[in-house]
């Protein structure tokens, strides 16, 4: 599956003074709050991190609240799908018009009817919805199937 | 062009044209896409159908339903900028205006929109959240059966929609959280929409996506409760009567206040009378009751322990840090009462832990011990053995403090210590009788306590005079120990020294679990609450002896011994079995010929009490306690 990458990053995390007694906890909290969100700086969605605190000393910012910055070195797992990448996901919903897929358990994607290959025909069999391939009899897409698709946008 | 459905589909059998679903969907798709080429007729017709939504004739209802269903199938053709008039029409529709079929179709459309494109997710969730509250004209109808039925219909669909969306878009609950919090009506909304909104938040907590959003919902509710609580000012409702003490008549019954001639209310007690007309108080009352009922349902579902953890966290963050919260803490009280062994004990232990740790700020520790003292005194469901173990912790800490601080009296420097001592004395005022009859407890607690009280730091002089006086009175009657110096306070409620240790926040007069003055809440809390009038102070036995006209001394002593036996057996028993105490109580009370018979009309059956009217037991002039 494309789109996944591991990056090494040098980070500085700014913490509120009240957290000075439990710094590592605060750092983990800070990083956790940006999980599963798209981060401009990283250029992708942060999926996981592994952190090492570099310095015991931290720089205090001057200002109304003296936040202090802790330097870190982190390994980040990022997800940044681009056009024309192939991704895999699990089908959660099928309809005449669309296939809904969930990738990596958190990201949702939709494949609309016009983007589904002509060979697939929408059928309802035994109350179950599926897309059956006309050319390969066994090739069937149902709810729960893993499929691979191309990213359009 | 556009949709042409027969006017009366059920009537006109001859001319009826059966369109298949896919045909209708393609009609709609054509209408949508035709806008691109400049042909807006059919599109405008579509928008027109969406707007025309009040007072619909049956065929118009059918048209609306069909259109909605068709749109649900055509979501891939909807463009957010091109079709913005259609979208705004859809999002402004309220589920409350329609019957079940149209509502179903509308919800289906919203769900389809939400999962088809990330751009619509926020808008759809927002639309669903706005359906938590009915349109203004409907709010009055909510109490009627028809209104309730509609409410059930709408809300069940809304919550089901959340679950569906969450299934297909896993991160949707995260967005939902922020939306719900931002969409909370403020307390200043005249239409009281907040009640039904909070009901929805609690439904989310216990619903299918509860695991994801539940704790945030609960904490947001407690936040709002505290906000309301703080709106009710202490100054607005206090009465300046410095002469009465804390252990005077408690406000158990509204009738009493109305009947009594003089204001028998101490300075630090709120007046229920002045709260009666307060609309914010009423709103808080209703919200608290909603929360209580929710806790009950959590308990029935076996989830209370988990919910309680969130509640405790919220309590620590919000309630304890609020300046003298008045009623919100009863949420925790009620939760504890629903599960005394786990939650009840956990709460007290947490408070005690907070008190003994040096790392916490002073005011937190003092506030924590004030909560603990009030809780241990007022919670009927706590076993005597647990209370004694908690007391022992406090006593041990105070003794340790005394041994390490061999200095003279100084209220400012030893605030935490004095608040600890006051807490111990306060609890013993309520629970002394129970402990005096168990020799083991007596020696464990009393020996160190005597040391503390006679120490150079002199807590008896610094702590709140009314508490000290009551404590000493009971201690003397129970022959615990005598103090060499006499402490004459003349019924003073507070003194210079107590004010000093209490500090700016007046934590010396903070008794958070004093009787709840909100009427509806009170009916929930009452069955597991210890009122001062229910406590039998040790000196009342002496009073008994004096007042016995006919019976001999032997009889009364025998009765006393019998009572004590029963009480001894009760120590450590469950809350239900302690009902026996009341019978003894009643017995003793009958000896006092002044009070009317059947004075304790409490029915201590189940928790879910109808608010019974208490017979007014206390007449100011004749009550023994006012003497």
From TrEMBL, chain A:
GO terms for biological process: DNA-templated transcription initiation; transcription elongation by RNA polymerase I. Its main location: nucleus. InterPro entries: RNA_pol_Rpb7-like_N_sf (IPR036898), Rpb7-like (IPR045113). Keywords: DNA-directed RNA polymerase, Nucleus, Transcription. It is found in: Nucleus. GO terms for cellular component: RNA polymerase I complex. It comes from the Eukaryota. DNA-dependent RNA polymerase which catalyzes the transcription of DNA into RNA using the four ribonucleoside triphosphates as substrates. This is DNA-directed RNA polymerase subunit. It comes from Durio zibethinus.
TrEMBL record, chain B:
GO terms for molecular function: RNA polymerase I core binding; RNA polymerase I general transcription initiation factor activity; translation initiation factor activity. Pfam families: RRN3. Keywords: Initiation factor, Protein biosynthesis. Residues 606-627 are annotated as: Disordered. GO terms for biological process: transcription initiation at RNA polymerase I promoter. GO terms for cellular component: nucleus. Belongs to the RRN3 family. This is RNA polymerase I-specific transcription initiation factor RRN3 isoform X1. It comes from Durio zibethinus.
